[in-house]
Design brief:
The protein is mainly alpha-helical and 58 residues long. It contains 3 helices and no strands. The chain has a domain at 13-52. The longest helix is centred in the last third of the chain and has 13 residues, at 40-52.
């Protein structure tokens, strides 16, 4: 049996910034990741990137 992978999605810098701002304004990470269907570790990386450089480029 082979499991089909979910196709890789891309997110705009504007989207990333918006949901990081939700977190900074007090919304819980778990709520944000469920509501926007974003992986927890992906969201953690966006928070770190935004905090360190203000940019989402790696």
């Amino acid at each position: 049996m082979t499991e089909s992978k979910r196709p890789r999605r891309t997110f705009t810098p504007e989207f990333k910034h918006q949901i990081v701002q939700l977190y900074k304004n007090g919304k819980r990470k778990s709520e944000i990741t469920k509501e926007y269907d974003v992986g927890y570790s992906t969201f953690e990386r966006w928070i770190t990137q935004e905090s360190n450089s203000g940019s989402f480029k790696e």
